[in-house]
Design a protein that fits this description.
One of its GO terms (biological process) is long-chain fatty acid import into cell. The protein is of the alpha/beta class. It is built from 21 helices and 30 strands.
């Protein structure tokens, strides 16, 4: 008996010792295990789709939910609740209108230009039920870029929100010349050439659309086009397949979301975060989402309390806006338990917790068109994701040395890239394989090819260039450092420097423009700045330039600062040198060149004085 008791005591002591050792040496062991189990489980489902050629898509999941929980609220918008049945039947009406009129057929692409509203989802799902691909257009883009978008994805039909129809007035003739039908979500239109959809939906059937219309046998079949700014100047149509849609829709589930959650979506639906992760994730777990037309910092917590929100989507800038709101009583009196998004700065993260409670902030990393994704499933402040030995077996990625002066990856004497050590910053590259394919962009193959690096570590290999500088620490946490190349991020949007440079170059007095992003204390991302050369015999005209960029560029892409130079510094491969300009910033005390600031009050680019500079860096002047 004593011997048995001794063995039991030793066993308990051993288990306790292992537990303590695990806590000290491998503190995230069980969290990693549970997270990886979900990844493997979901991945196995994807593999089954490949084997059986019976793909159960995000849309199939929605139809299934509409049948199983028809009376549950799916979308709450401006105080009105729309059930799963409501959205299902209304999307059926959209499908039947286009089917009856013979306007579209399976395989066609339809462009969608709408602000956040339930009908965005109804039109999206309705067209998808007919087997069409839908192209989400950014509501901020201007005429020149908008026409380019149609050429990219091959859309011959545009569905536009009633409130956005007038923004197309300048390009309606061009759309007609290209035989593009324009439909508006209204019962009447002031433009004779624009067809109306709502009046036709009134008599359309709400009966289900035959499932064979939307059926697909391949995960790689195109599903959506989402436009993203890149290095080519104009927006690029990222190809979204059913594989990518299914992965994105599993985001909330992977973080522990359930059917009891209420998801708050204040981000624009034309971005993958709100549409693929937000709407897709909500219907995947059978939850309810509160959809906002636009984000409002002053109404955020009011909405969260009114609708019992438990999960919200964010970008780092959104959280900073919330922290900058005046303090109020009861800021921690809410039911929000989780935030899902990206770009949250460490200082804002900590301030957000201090102000609003220990909400679990779930950072994630992954571009719209990318083939790698990281998720910070343990909530480590400052990290965008976490990796480990097993994760690297599934997703092949590497951080390589990057030459900031030459603006390209470092290559050794053998012509291969070199990996950085843990703790060092490197360019994130993701290997292209059967498990992690890269679908690229619609249109010119050159756009896709420019995103790829070949012969990275050995002859014949291919990697996706994410354009992001990252660091992986000794504990396998991955953090974002910066973007490289010709894109920077401001106000939650990617800005293509070449597109902005082309717009600036249209001015008669600008000979050359070099656009880049600069850090501004207290602000997320980088603000736009342009170094320009004024043509001989011309003078810089700040008012004329202000009017020009106001009409041709969205607000987030407009350069806030200008630097007038006599000549441009070039790299050895005749590329404009940006690195030293970025490092110089916009401090008039440290720069001898004339500097200007975009002043919305005077509607002009005005000289950037020390006083204006101090007001910007101190946060007194809002950008």
């Amino acid at each position: 008996m004593l011997v048995s008791l001794g063995w039991v005591t030793a066993l308990v002591a051993g288990i306790f010792g292992i537990h303590i050792g695990q806590k000290l040496c491998f503190p995230y062991f069980w969290k990693d295990v549970f997270y990886l189990a979900k990844v493997i489980r979901y991945g196995a489902r994807m593999e089954m789709y490949k084997i059986t050629s019976k793909v159960f898509t995000v849309l199939d999941r929605f139809v299934q939910q509409a049948a199983q929980i028809p009376n549950k609220a799916f979308i709450i918008y401006e105080g009105v609740s729309y059930t799963y049945r409501d959205i299902d039947e209304r999307s059926n009406k959209v499908a039947h209108v286009f089917e009856k009129l013979g306007t579209v057929k399976k395989g066609d692409t339809v462009a969608l230009l709408m602000n956040n509203e339930p009908d965005f989802v109804c039109v999206w799902f309705g067209l998808s039920k007919l087997g069409c691909s839908v192209a989400f257009l950014n509501t901020n883009i201007k005429s020149r870029s908008l026409l380019h978008c149609f050429n990219c994805c091959g859309a011959k039909i545009l569905v536009v929100g009633k409130d956005l129809l007038d923004t197309l007035q300048d390009i309606l003739p061009s759309l007609q010349e290209d035989s593009i039908q324009v439909w508006t979500m209204g019962k009447e239109s002031s433009h004779p050439e624009v067809r109306t959809l709502l009046d036709k939906m009134e008599w359309a059937s709400e009966q289900p659309v035959p499932a064979e219309y939307r059926a697909t046998t391949s995960l790689k079949a195109h599903n959506l086009y989402i436009f993203t700014s890149g290095t080519t100047g104009l927006p690029k149509a990222a190809v979204i397949t059913h594989l990518q849609s299914l992965k994105a829709a599993a985001g909330f589930w992977a973080y522990g979301g359930t059917c009891d959650d209420v998801v708050y979506i204040p981000l624009p639906l034309y971005h993958s975060a709100a549409s693929l992760i937000g709407i897709g994730g909500t219907l995947h777990i059978g939850a309810t989402c509160v959809l906002k037309k636009k984000f409002s910092a002053s109404h955020f917590w009011i909405d969260c309390k009114e609708y019992n929100v438990t999960i919200f989507q964010y970008i780092g800038e959104l959280c900073r806006y919330l922290c900058n709101q005046p303090k109020a009583e009861g800021e921690k009196e809410h039911k929000v338990r989780m935030g899902v998004g990206n770009g949250l700065r460490q200082d804002v993260w900590r301030e957000f917790h201090r102000r609003f409670g220990e909400i679990r902030m779930c950072e994630l990393y992954g571009s719209t068109e990318g083939n790698v994704c990281f998720m910070n499933h343990v909530g480590k402040i400052g990290a965008v994701g976490r990796s480990n030995f097993f994760y690297k077996l599934i997703f092949k990625y590497d951080l390589v040395k990057y030459d900031m002066v030459k603006d390209e990856p470092f290559r050794n004497k053998q012509g291969f890239c070199e990996r950085v050590r843990k703790g060092q910053t490197g360019l994130l590259l993701s290997k292209v394989s059967a498990r992690t394919p890269f679908f690229g962009y619609a249109g010119s193959k050159q756009l896709t090819e420019k995103k790829l690096f070949h012969d990275v570590f050995e002859k014949g290999d291919t990697y996706v260039n994410t354009g992001d500088l990252m660091v992986e620490d000794q504990k396998d946490f991955i953090s974002f450092r910066d973007r490289v190349g010709d894109t920077f991020r401001w106000k939650g949007e990617n800005v293509a420097t070449t597109e902005v440079a082309e717009i600036l170059g249209l001015m008669d007095f600008i000979q050359e423009a070099n656009v880049y992003g600069v850090e501004v204390p207290g602000n997320e991302g980088r603000a736009g700045m342009a170094s320009v050369i004024v043509r001989p015999d011309y003078e810089f005209d700040g008012k004329k330039l202000f009017d020009h960029i106001l009409s041709d560029l969205p607000s987030y892409a407009r350069p806030l600062f200008l630097r007038i130079q006599e000549s441009m510094e070039m790299t050895g491969t005749f590329k404009q040198q940006k690195f030293r300009l970025v490092e110089s910033g916009f401090n008039p005390s440290a720069i001898s060149d004339p500097l200007y600031f975009l002043d919305n009050a005077t509607k002009c680019y005005i000289p950037l004085t020390d006083t204006i500079y101090d007001s910007i860096v101190s946060g007194q002047r809002k950008l």
